Structures are given as structure tokens and as C-alpha cells.
Amino acid sequence: MSDNRQTPIRLDDTDRKILSLLQEDATLSLDDIAARVGASKTPVWNRIRKLREAGVIRGQVALLDPDALGLDACFFVLIRTSEHDPEWARRFLAAVRARPEVIEAHRLAGDIDYILKVRVRNARAYDRFYQALISEVKIHNVTALLSMEELKATTALPLD
């Protein structure tokens, strides 16, 4: 997998306020943001532009409600592999990226090699996902954990 770490940029209090507002509601107008941070429009626009150019703001998206879309089942899939060569990793990454059900994927330290967060309609849909995944790439062990209740979910990063 790739290493996309970069040096964090320095943020002042105004940058943090702007980012907090955008994390809460990216549809706010420039006028609203400027008024809430106590600055005029042009300096706020310049800050937002610089934050985009620096890669701090990666994009703006609409957050959809999975339940409203019938994606009622959230599984955390723990994967152990006995394969650790670059070709296997490439195939695994391609398989994970090609599956829209996978909304997060992480390579881990410890006993579990990877964890996937998978959103599907139900257990039957999860089984179809599972069968497709293991047909594409050899996996030593898979454990699926069904989330019974989401206690917290946010896209907002801590800015302190």
C-alpha cells in the first residue's frame, strides 16, 4: 500500500474556525463563514483556497444516510492473511477498492492484518460480498462482526 503522509501545516485560530465550520456544513456561504469567524470575505476565501492547495481540504461531498438507502447492516471484517508479498497486496488492494460496499479499509499492526468497514442491506448481501472477495484474493482467515448499534460516527477531525 502507499504511504501518503505529509508534513502537517500550521493552522492559526482563524484557519481552525473556518475548518470547523466547513466540517459541520460545507454548504455555508462565504458570507456566513466570514461573519462567523469575524473576517471579511476575501481573506477567508484566500485561506480556504490555500487550505485546498495544501491538501488540508481534500474535497466536499454529500453525506448520505445509509439507513435511508436500505443499507441497514454494518460489518467490521477482520482479515488475517498468510500472504505478504507485493503481488498479493496489489490484488487485495484492487479487490477492496473495486467493492463499493467497503467504505473503509485499514492495514493494522498486531494479530489482524486488515479491517474493513462494510455497508450492505443484510446478512445475505454480506455473504455475496464475502464470496466475491475470497474468489478474488486468497485470505487465511476472515471474521465478520455485525455492528448492533452505531454509537458515534463523524467525519469531523479534531482541530485542537
From TrEMBL:
Limits of the HTH asnC-type domain = 11-72
What InterPro entries has UniProt attached to this entry? ArsR-like_HTH, AsnC-type_HTH_dom, Dimeric_a/b-barrel, Tscrpt_reg_AsnC-like, Tscrpt_reg_AsnC/Lrp_C, WH-like_DNA-bd_sf, WH_DNA-bd_sf
User: What keywords does the record list, in alphabetical order?
Assistant: DNA-binding, Transcription, Transcription regulation
A Gene Ontology biological process in which this protein takes part is: response to amino acid
Q: Name one GO cellular component term.
A: cytosol
One Pfam family recorded for the sequence: HTH_24
Under the GO molecular function aspect, what terms does this record hold? sequence-specific DNA binding
Question: What name is this protein filed under?
Answer: Transcriptional regulator, AsnC family
